[in-house]
Amino acid sequence: MAGWWSFDDIDATWVRDVLGIADARGWSLERVTRGRITQAARLHVRRPDGDVETVVVKCVDPGWTGSLLPLERQHRFYAGSTGLELPVATCRATCLDPGTGRFWTVLDDPGPSHYGDDVVGPTYPTSFLAMAALATVHRAVDWRGPRPDWVDPLPVPDHDGLGDDYVRFVEQYGERIDPVHLTLANQVVASIGTLTDHAARLGARAGIVHGDFRYGNLVVGRHGAARPVVVTNWSHVTWGPRVVDLASFLSMSLPPEVRRRSYDELLHRYLVGLGGPVDGEAIGALRREIHDHAFLVLVQVIRCAVETPGWEAPEKAGPGRSITDLWLTMFARVCTFLEDLGRPLVTPAPGRPSRPVALADEFAHPDSVGDGLSEEWTLAVADTTAEVGVWVRFGRHSALTEGAYVTVSITGPDLPQITVATPTPDIDENLSVTMPGMRMQHTVVDPLRHVHLRLSGRGEAGGDDVGIVLDLHWYACADPALYGGSPLLLVPSVVTGTITLSGLGPAERRIAVDAPGYRDHSWAGTDWWDMRWTAFVAHFDDDSEMNGLDVRIPGIAPVSLGHLQGATTAPVLVDVCRVLDHGDPDDRDRTLSFAVEPGAHTVTFTPTCHADVARPGGPGRPDEVIRRSWGTFTRNDGRRGVGWVETEARPLDGDHAVAGPARPPRDSP
């Protein structure tokens, strides 16, 4: 191919074949704008009767040497979106033939108008018009329906490719970048795999994504224009999370002080334009989606900047400004936006301090058993290196659940679920149990800091008898904390020791454990049967700890409990812990996401193994199965973690038959 078609190739034949004007008396061009990929001009054609018809023609910029993909996207968008209600100029013709170099798009002239100036930013009324236009784009195709065949899915950022672009970006602009912004961008680029993986699991509403929705790609109408706002430059259009466009405009187009003043009003206007609910819950959900996807805007800025380093384009960036000034301004604004959102989390979010913990909270509370109360202990570890998870829970129960019990579950990717689940005589205050088939000793070596668990007995795995010996130590690795409204102590821990199994093969199997875990101790009511609840406990690779409980009780507002704790900070109480998508409760391998405040966290859990255990239902109630899994967590600041999720009891039936303690007789001691 000799070169791309240009405005110089317009002739009488082209005017006749493309515009349908035969015997034109002449034409003239008025350059409108020059972008990174395409340039646009108004074409004024004088008809044989003397009338002048004006259209906008776009062609490839002569300096573009990149991929065909942006041209293909733009061509398919204009060819395929005919009939949709979109704030775009009507397409009269579009052509793409790489073999001959022909690419053009012919659009109706929007009339008296001007392109937005990204550096100056839009006026307050224009920002509202932009929100209305964006909402129109996003409601044009039902997000619940299939992706149109003329638009590609949003590509996943490639770590290596982004890393190369970022190196080029820093080499080109490094001396002009704020060091704080450079640090933040380093974190985003280093964590891009986790961030994108995490965002993909959240189920954000999908739709047409413009891909570069900022003020500079809007044509703002003046008096007499056909539309108040026309959205241009569709060379990055994809199908993906709609909120990416919203984050783009808010972060790139608005100076930070303007954005902060008008943020809530702009979100409200966007939701009004979508035509859905505009209540506090809808705005809160939108805020969270922005928070979880805003990092993609920084990726976009870095990649756009390195495609055109140092390219002078005063028509686009404004008189006297270079495209370098434009992208550095965009970069600084996006980094400031991410800082305001709290991503990545550089310092722990403020919150209410946890209640003080007393040494007595470590030990048994004899007065807590009876009158509908009970006392329970849980010890758990999830070791991704050793590929094993251990969960131990034992309790001194009231008549509500008819007796004391011990349950143990050991699971791993190459292990069957091994379960010990048995009623016991009421556990003594020294937390020891000796009975046929099992011996357990729970020793407090150093109150609130170190507990040693020895347990030996016979377990069951798929009908087979398995010998179990646990010799494990829980060492506190963060401050113990009490739940805000419930007498429950939780101690984040590092767990070391051994698990010895016999009966799974000809040889005894010994597994060394050295991994994050936790233990808890509760003395409270245990009537979990009349509520929905989901709990999680996670340890992250920055040594932060998170745990939360989402409780749904009929007739009252949702209840949230839990703690957040940084590596060097005291625990604070959770204000909000919400399961974002319950999904199909019978899909055991589904991911589960939690919204956690303070800090605008989204935490997503992916199960590795399941450790369901039955639990007696109490007088007049069916036995229940508590669903329990260990696995990996991702957090929306790019951190990864490991831990456990436990969710509400379900009645036992043929589909939920798991090992569990038989109900003891009422006269059990």
TrEMBL record:
InterPro entries: Aminoglycoside_PTrfase (IPR002575), DUF7064 (IPR055492), Kinase-like_dom_sf (IPR011009). Residues 48-271 form the Aminoglycoside phosphotransferase domain. Residues 647-669 are annotated as: Disordered. SUPFAM superfamilies: AttH-like (SSF159245), Protein kinase-like (PK-like) (SSF56112). Residues 647-656 have a biased composition (Basic and acidic residues). It comes from the Bacteria. Residues 528-648 form the DUF7064 domain. This is Phosphotransferase enzyme family protein. It comes from Williamsia serinedens. The lineage of its organism: Bacteria, Bacillati, Actinomycetota, Actinomycetes, Mycobacteriales.
